[in-house]
Amino acid sequence: MTRSLWIDEKGRATSGGIGESMLALIRELYPVGRSITGPGLRVTVARLSEIVPLQVTEVPSGSRVFDWTVPDEWSVEEAYIETADGRRVVDMKDSNLHVVGYSVPVEAEMTLAELRPHLHSLPGHPDWIPYRTSYYSPNWGFCLTDRVLQSLAEGRYRVVIRSRLAPGSLTLAEYVHPGETAEEVLVFAHDCHPSLANDNLSGLAVAINLAAFLRSRRTRYTYRFVFAPATIGSITWLATNESALHRIRHGLVLSLLGDKGPLHYKVTRAGDQAIDRAAWHVLSTEFPGSKKVDFLPWGYDERQFGSPGVNLAVGRITRTPNGEFPEYHTSADNPDFLSAESLAESWLACLKVLEALDGDARYINTQPKGEPQLGRRGLYRSTGGHQDVPERQLALLWVLNQSDGMHSLLDIAERSRLPFRVISEAAADLERAGLLTPAG
Ligand SMILES: [Zn+2]
Predict the structure, then answer these.
(1) Left if phi > 0, otherwise alpha if psi is -120 to 50, otherwise beta: which for 357?
(2) pLDDT tens for residues 344-382?
(3) What distance in angstroms lies between residue 299's CA and the mean position of ligand 1's atoms?
(4) Between β-strands 169-177 and 222-228, what pairing exists: parallel, antiparallel or unpaired?
(5) Rounded to the nearest whole angstrom, what is the distance from the C-alpha of residue 199 to the centroid of ligand 1?
(6) What is the pLDDT of residues 240-279, one digit of tens each?
(7) Is residue 38 left, alpha or beta, with left meaning phi > 0 and alpha meaning psi from -120 to 50?
(8) Nearest Cα to 213, choosing from 353, 315, 317, 313?
């Protein structure tokens, strides 16, 4: 039996309010000091678990994961720079971007010249704070606006970073929605960035709301949502789940989904997988202005999923890609940079891509000699309430013409350039009328 679509034609209307609720979640999680390990990561996962219960796994520091080692856990209590007369010129209380991620502890007095190599600013955007980390080489530093940096007078400064680096664990979180088959679709979002909104929080908000939507629905595939730190987190997850990776048929990495730029689909390493076809078909037919970008072993965790020894069919959906908007990795990537409309559209686009994967199937036309008489079966009449009648009638003819058991609904959608939703609904109408039967 053809499956009913998850989202009807009025999908935009029925998803009303989801953009606002995602933006509210992003605002709530924005001040949390996340890193690749530590308490901020756990707070974030616990909040997501209130929406959909996540299974949390803690992987101990020192664990070997492929060519990497899970690092010591990092936490920071306070970090500031004070002038000799006790005035704080930089304070992590104002923004957790002020401290370089994984800074080792320091408490010292030094001259501006000695302090200077530890200070990072953006001269081109003098009011923005950059985002910097030093995970794997022990160092410390502060990020600040160039305006503040330029205002620092010569003299002595007191520098304090009360951080802790000690054996602990790296937090992985996942939710599995069981489907009719054990074959899986993986949805991955990284959760390791501190106060950055488009980069990481938008992906978390969209992914957890996709999980919430699928939770109450019957699906063909099993859906696995993984929330983990970028790079070390995806590598840790892959290394600790290696024996189960063969179940993953398709996957998506999600991030950067709240800015006002067009949707971008980045293809898998192979470039010609079902996820590539489904994603690009949905984006190109239903989301005007969308762009397709080639695979590149850089960016987010698609490069771990697409490494040669893993080689999973995982593509990526973003709006404006990483590094292509000036606010990227700065304090300007804050909740005000995002829009509820963009978040809602991203959520809907991702859902439609998953829907096209899940609903793809092959059928056989039971009256293949000439065109069957559709009017007699009420098929023209049944489409009468729709705005796009010619498109729907054309879809009926396309599905009948191509349903020889060789072509799937996605094949037909691609060839006809009609939205998958329209082709899928046409197939359901034809099956109800006895003109279509599942192949194989
Ligand atoms: Zn990033």
Answers:
(1) alpha
(2) 999 999 999 999 999 999 999 999 999 999 989 988 755
(3) 8
(4) antiparallel
(5) 5
(6) 999 999 999 999 999 999 999 999 999 999 999 999 999 9
(7) left
(8) 353
Helix, strand, coil share of the chain (percent; to 5): 35, 25, 40
- Residue with token string 């998958």: 420
Q: Which amino acid is at 236?
A: T
Residue count of the chain: 440
72, 167 Cβ separation under 8 angstroms: yes
Cα(227) to ligand 1 centroid in Å equals 14
CA of 176 to the centre of ligand 1 (A): 25
CA of 433 to the centre of ligand 1 (A): 51
User: What are the C-alpha distances in Å from 318 to residues 121, 138, 331?
Assistant: 27, 32, 19
Q: Which amino acid is at 240?
A: T
Q: What is the distance between the alpha carbons of residues 62 and 54, in angstroms, rounded to a whole number? A: 24
CB atoms within 10 A of CB 271: 11
Residue 292 alpha carbon to ligand 1 centre in Å: 20
With b meaning 16 or more CB within 10 Å and e meaning fewer, what string describes 54-90?
Answer: beebebebeeebeeeebbbbbbbeebbbbeeeeeebb
CA quadruple 198, 204, 205, 208: dihedral, nearest 10: 160
The neighbouring-strand residues paired with 68 are 65
